Amino acid sequence: MTDWLARWQNNKIGWHADTVNRSLVDYFELLELASGASVFVPLCGKSIDMIYLSEMGFSVIGVELSSVGVEQFFVGNGLQYSVSEIDEFVLYRSDRIKIYCGDYFKLTAKHLLSVSAVYDRASLIALDLKLREKYAQHLAAIIPRDVRILLLTLIYPQHQMSGPPFSVSNSEVESLFSSAFKYRQLHCFNDIDNEPKFLRAGVDCVENAAYLLQKGRE
Description:
Blueprint: H1 2-9, H2 22-27, E1 38-42, H3 49-55, E2 59-64, H4 67-76, E3 82-86, E4 89-93, E5 97-101, E6 115-120, H5 129-142, E7 148-155, H6 170-177, E8 181-190, H7 196-200, E9 207-215
Parallel strand pairs: 1-2, 1-6, 2-5, 6-7
Antiparallel strand pairs: 3-4, 4-5, 7-9, 8-9
């Protein structure tokens, strides 16, 4: 947690992307959302993907530990916003986007009652091994039944580079989510040529993987 805040303070946020994620564009329709539905973006940082979702007519609920990241998101995108305190969070809110600034693990089901989908581009892979199981269990506990998740991960030889982002294998995704979610892999391909950070570190291969999950096993 301290390391995460320090990365934001020192602008060491190599995971941040300045363009909308291609997989979000390609697979968003699989979430089958009604007009105006709410999408939860955990560990959202200042992701431009939230702007894309709001411009598509959806409401966005994010959670982010760093106030630096949250404020950079609203100010950097020219959004007017209000700030209030709710439960153990500072809530930043604009027209279609609200972000709970605080600990993801303090979120409860009442904060996400309106959520119809989850978009995880850089949340699971931001966490080290010991936290990923806790993250998945908490997510299953706080989102409504039948919610669909678009999950994006990276797979690479972890010994060749320290995270974040961390490598999360196909088998780990199955282990983390199969007890509470139906899931299927949408793609998995070597994307090393589009990952300059990994190339500089001498990583041999980086697989870009995407999954569609739905809460409920029946």
